[in-house]
Here is the input.
Amino acid sequence: MNKLQPIKQSGVFFLMTGFLLFGIAYHVVSATCTLKGDIDCSGKVTQTDLATLALSIGGSSTASDINKNGAVEIDDLLTLLSNFGKTEQTPVPTSTSVPTPALTAQPTATVTPSVSGSDPSFVCLENAGPLQVITGFYNSGKFEPATANNKKFDARKASFEIPSSISHQMVSLRGSNMDSMCWAGGYITSSTSWHDLNISWNESKHGYDNEGSNRGTMENTTSATSYGNKMTWTGLHVFNVHDGLRTSNSKDNWKIQHSWFDYIRDDCIENDHIYSGEVYDTLFDGCYSGLSVRPSAGSNDYAKGSVIKFDKVLLRMEPMPYPYKWDSKSDPTLKVSGYGETPFGFGNVFKMENGIEPDFEITNSVFLLEYDAKKELFPPQDKVRVCKNNTLIWLGNPADAPTYLTSEFPGCFTIITDKTQGKALWKNKVADWHKRHPDVGAHRKPSVPGEYKWPRY
Here is the structure.
């Protein structure tokens, strides 16, 4: 005899007697339900199921044969007890009245990321068009990705360091189809192994060229350039390069916005082919020269009838060591205690060629100058189509302040010559800019935005 048989029989008798005493009704059903032990398919394993199975032990009831081995045994009872009190989880029904469309695989290049938060710098990534996400650190050569119309480059997690072995741009966007592209984010700087903070303008301009004559004979570095029309640059942080960004090859309405340029050793923007463009809500916190729209000597390769717009621009001119031809020109320079005879100076706020200047619209912008460098401060009167709500912070001798601007451009400028007031205003404006652009240079923010120190070394 099976040693478990007396236990089985006594257990069955106890269960049968208990349920009969409590008057539990039972019935046998032939349905099979999802939840093991739910013999009557009520959606829950209850005492009724237990009584039904108890009276079926030893028989061949299909409904009570939970484990489907051809007989109702104690193992079926144990399975039921393990699920006793459990409720069947009913799935949420799917409507059948509306057919589900077939899914079509989408190419990765057209998937756009979700741009969250209040920082407006990367909104262009939500636009339609192919997408390339760029991550990592690049310092061995030019970055030259494939281009396409309406393409977006998400470089928020990328950084670039310009080595001594290349000339001109570190990021080069050039191809057969490249209209209306957008580059968003990224950090671009120069290797201090050859472009340290204390080098002269000439050393910043010239350098080695190990990639052949087609690369040029000078470093003449810049963070990036595009050869496409309607190019947008947004959310960049650029530090310690020769030219901040080169738009000379971006025809037809380039745009620089929501970007931070810091310690730029020559032109913060080089646009020497004089194409129309717009600079919006951008911080230039240390320029040797502001905007260049001066073609190479004798060149006729420049656009006519162009318009350049500045709106919500913050631009600080910073004296830098050994300015352009400091040893042969008579431009005013500054000496700084502790730096010996090192001359410091800067160039033009607007670098132009007389007679071929573009038209300008300059609004809601702030310019800061440390001293009177005897340079071009503003475009000619007949080239400024719109000018309003701008501020010039003059930290040099108040007697040298360019007060003529207020008469030549009525309603265009407020000039501040009080140093304390001027520095406080600049600090507030820069702090506000960084607050509104938390993700631009997020890990390189100044400890106190708006407070600056020069020399930088």
Q: What stands out?
A: The chain has a mean pLDDT of 83. The CA atoms of residues 14 and 413 lie 100 Å apart. The chain has two domains: 5-82, 109-296+305-364. The domain at 109-296+305-364 is CATH 2.160.20 (Pectate Lyase C-like).
